[in-house]
Amino acid sequence: MYERTWTVRFSDTDPFGIAHYPRIVDAIHETSDMFMEAIGWPFWEISQEYGFGLPLVEMNFEFENPVEAGDDVTIELTPTLGNRSVKFEYVARCGGKVAFSGYEQRVCARTGGEGAIELPEDLREAMDAYTDD
Amino acid sequence: MYERTWTVRFSDTDPFGIAHYPRIVDAIHETSDMFMEAIGWPFWEISQEYGFGLPLVEMNFEFENPVEAGDDVTIELTPTLGNRSVKFEYVARCGGKVAFSGYEQRVCARTGGEGAIELPEDLREAMDAYTDD
Amino acid sequence: MYERTWTVRFSDTDPFGIAHYPRIVDAIHETSDMFMEAIGWPFWEISQEYGFGLPLVEMNFEFENPVEAGDDVTIELTPTLGNRSVKFEYVARCGGKVAFSGYEQRVCARTGGEGAIELPEDLREAMDAYTDD
Amino acid sequence: MYERTWTVRFSDTDPFGIAHYPRIVDAIHETSDMFMEAIGWPFWEISQEYGFGLPLVEMNFEFENPVEAGDDVTIELTPTLGNRSVKFEYVARCGGKVAFSGYEQRVCARTGGEGAIELPEDLREAMDAYTDD
To answer: Pfam families from the xrefs (chains A, B, C, D) (predicted)?
Structure first.
């Protein structure tokens, strides 16, 4: 799996001192962006150079424990490969507890086009290094 | 149900001219905030005046059709009342099509406290005017 | 001048219950977007249909009084027209006091091109209705 | 001075592939937060533990060159100390060019109180290591 640390900032926090949900979602999306960059297929290149994208079709997250400014939150991302889609599963931990977890379901689609296409073989291989098995 | 119109702004859009997902999530959360204000129980008052909150425990959204800058997106919110929780269901439409839909599951919890409490009767009545039945 | 009301949301606020600065900046930018739409030259159309944009080259804001969740903040925008540029001046008031004020300096530039061009005559006329004199 | 690298993400970018201004402002504010943490006086601690804050009273930024998704932008922060205030000056560079620069003027104020107070001596010393002289 892929892992990064998100430090919650003062500007992410609410009147109770805990992170606003939309700011947590920002951190999740940033994690997917960092992962794609780490495997050599950044979001900003795949459409321009390869003519496809991985648009989000579903997101599902559970928020189990709040996080506060200054918390270092470890966010893990594990991809599960389909033929024409990929699921990014996330688990975020802080202080030994799960803070939030869930998944993004993404499809592989030709830029500006209709319908899903198969994940390119090179991309499958790049992601495979981070899958669960 | 409750309904508001969200106009997608230039600053919400990506290199393909469609709204970024985190900006859509911002619009969804803004809708819950507007709803609570509309029924007379704004998020910013319930903790200060009544000592409880409605923290999010789960969110699940499907993105069916992209939206573009200038689009007027109608976002409907329908609450479903539990004893100690409330579900906000959303359907967003644009140009006759569903753009995105899903729900937020929220629990009723005493501010700073442990465990869920029953929804106050007055709040139930205020929300009841917007439920499905 | 152009005027809109911004309602500060719970999700905009910090541990002191006042709006985070970046969320105020979001509201300012949203106001420029709403103004351009109101005069019939939305940001999302001018580049596609007329081949130019109004990129920001400077912003300067003073924050005089904090705003809280639930506050209805009146934001005024007054354009001042140059030959190849336009300045948007803002004054935001809440409860009879100035909350924040400042300006955005924007240049008129051909999309993807180099250097500034003159503001189109039709756009000047559309903005003229909102200038100070 | 203090320095950090901001990687522009896909979700920061607009239809021209360059970062939206509000997202640049997010990165600037994040930099001030990282700086305060680096010197041992994080924003989230100073009010709780020392009873003061550094609210923003003015911001002034110039945008000289656009930045794109994937760009590694070096953001430098240099504090200039006043008696009851501090100015954070920023220069952001990418690919050998200045992308944006400017400053935030902040005052030292007792939490919830009126008027400015002197910067605590320990904080002055912590910042001094990063000043220009």
So the answer is: 4HBT_2 (PF13279)
Q: Are A19 and A13 in contact (CB under 8 A)?
A: yes
- Residue extents of the structural domains in chain C: 2-128
C47 contact D CB<8A: yes
Measured at the alpha carbon of residue B74, what is the angle toward residues C7 and B59, in degrees to the nearest 5?
Answer: 80
Domain B2-128, second-level architecture:
Roll (3.10)
Choose the closest CB to A43 out of D7, D10, D34: D10
* CB-CB contact of B26 with D25 (8 Å): no
Contact B57, A102 (CB under 8 A): no
Chain A partners within 8 Å of B47 (Cβ): 15-16
pTM of the model: 0.95
Cβ neighbourhood burial of C91 (10 Å; 0-12, 13-18, 19+): middle
Residue C111 near residue C53, CB atoms below 8 Å: yes
A63 CB neighbours in chain B (<8 A) are 55-59
**Out of C21, C56, C61, closest to residue D29 by CB:** C21
The two three-digit tokens of residue D26, written as one number: 């997010």
ipTM: 0.94
Taking CA atoms, what residue in B is nearest to C48? B17
Asked if C11 lies within 8 A of B29 by C-beta distance, the reply is yes
Partner residue facing B11 (CB), from C29, C37, C70 = C29
pLDDT tens digits, residue range C87-98? Answer: 999 999 999 999
Q: Does A29 touch chain B (CB under 8 A)?
A: yes
Contacts of C among chains (3+ CB pairs under 8 A)? A, B, D
* CA nearest to D9, candidates A62, B34, B14, B76: B14
Q: Which residues, at least 6 apart from D23, have a Cβ–Cβ distance to it below 8 Å?
A: D12
Query: pLDDT tens digits for B31-50?
Result: 999 999 999 999 999 988 88
The secondary structure element, H or E, covering residue D88 is: strand D85-94
Higher pLDDT, B27 or B113: B27
D29 to A11: CB separation less than 8 angstroms, yes or no? yes
